[in-house]
Amino acid sequence: MLGLVGNALLLVAFVACGVSAFAFFWSARNGDGPQSAAWKRAGRWSWGAMSAAVVAVSGLLWYLILNHRYQYAYVYQNSSNDLPLHYLFSTFWAGQEGSFLLWILMMCGVGAALITYVQREYERHVMAVVGLSQFFLLSMIVGLQLGPVEIGTSPFVGLAEKFPDAPIFQQNPDFVPA
């Protein structure tokens, strides 16, 4: 269940980031005017929605790690019951998906700082580029399956999904490691 919530939040972040990058690009392309201001406002709101979803995804992943939810492949592969808390905390960025998520989380802060502190005439241009780079980073972990093409790998993939041919899942499909 939590994996579905995590994947849904990743999808929300991915779409909101795409909308934000497009809105800032379109605002920069339209120059100064009322339509440009509306696109810039849409870009800011989309960036905020994306940032909120990314913070929620990060919190959810930390929750899964700290509560030893080993039914998720990322947690199973990167953590252990024997780890002290400071090592368990660093499990967040131990794997590829977590590292990308950490970069995405930091870029949310950079984007918020740029929206707040960059001079208004440069905000649209700068945030269009930042939004596009954030969109690329999110594509690495969104985990979309479009027919035979998979876009990124989600940190919320279950063990049975990642290793469907594992002998334990052949014998007991409902197996959850303890």
Helix- and strand-based class?
mainly alpha
Q: Which term fits the overall shape? A: elongated
Strand order of the largest sheet: 1-2
Distance, first to last CA: 18 Å
Note poorly predicted spans: none
| Average of per-residue pLDDT values | 88
DSSP, total strands:
2
Query: How many domain modules?
Result: 1
Strand content: under 5%
Order of helices and strands: HHHHHHEEHH
Q: Helix segment count? A: 8
Radius of gyration computed on alpha carbons: 19 Å
Helix content: over 70%
Biggest pleated sheet: 2 strands, antiparallel
Describe the structure concisely:
Helix content is 70%, strand content 3%. By secondary structure, the protein is mainly alpha-helical. The protein has one domain (2-171).
Written account of the structure:
There is one protein chain. 70% of the residues lie in helices and 3% in strands. The protein has helices at 2-30, 34-66, 73-78, 85-90, 96-117, 120-139, 159-162, 167-171; strands at 144-146, 149-151. It has a two-stranded antiparallel sheet with strand order 1-2. With 178 residues, the chain is mainly α. It has eight helices and two strands, in the order H-H-H-H-H-H-E-E-H-H. The protein has one domain. The relative contact order is 0.17. Strand 1 and strand 2 form a beta hairpin.
Protein traits:
single chain; 178 residues; mainly alpha; two-stranded antiparallel ribbon; 8 helices; 2 strands; 70% helix; 3% strand
